[in-house]
Amino acid sequence: MAETRTLADLKDLTQSAGVATPAEEPVQPRLDRLGRAYATGRRKNAIARVWVKPGMGKVTVNGRELERYFARATLQMILRQPFEAVNKPQHFDVVCTVAGGGLSGQAGAVRHGISRALTHYDPALRPALKAGGFLTRDDREVERKKYGKAKARRSFQFSKR
Fold it and tell me: DSSP letters along 100-160, please?
């Protein structure tokens, strides 16, 4: 009969046998030589490359100001959500390039990229961003059209006669 052991039992065995377990080392920030944190964000068909650095809260998207690129207030709010989750709304400058998809998908991709870049800049921000759901990539995509159908699921109109 096989003996079942829990994880705690196995840890006790390794410690008593003198086997060294890897120590939890603190996660270091990942910055480039200019002091910026880089991350890639994705949503629908949009891909955003995002650089975050300390600053006054200026956001530049594809060389344009945030208000000019994302004119709708809801899209601007989506971009600012990660900063509000960590209570640092005006502490970072963001430079990003985004391509593909529509404006809604691009805003979601930039938000995902900002969240990931913030965790690379300061790993202590990860729990707040994770709790808000900003680090999870929304993997929903548009369903493809099938042959024999008018759209992805819609059938052609049925006529009995």
Answer: SS-HHHHHHHHHHHHHHHHHHH-GGGHHHHHHHT-SS-----PPPPPTTSSSSSPPPPP--
Identify any residues that bridge with 97 across adjacent strands, giving them in sequence order: 49
pLDDT 10s per residue in the chain (161 long)? 556 666 666 566 556 555 555 666 778 888 989 999 999 999 999 999 999 999 999 999 999 999 999 999 999 999 999 999 999 888 999 999 999 999 999 999 999 999 999 999 999 999 999 999 999 999 999 999 999 999 999 999 999 98
Strand partners of residue 96: 50, 61
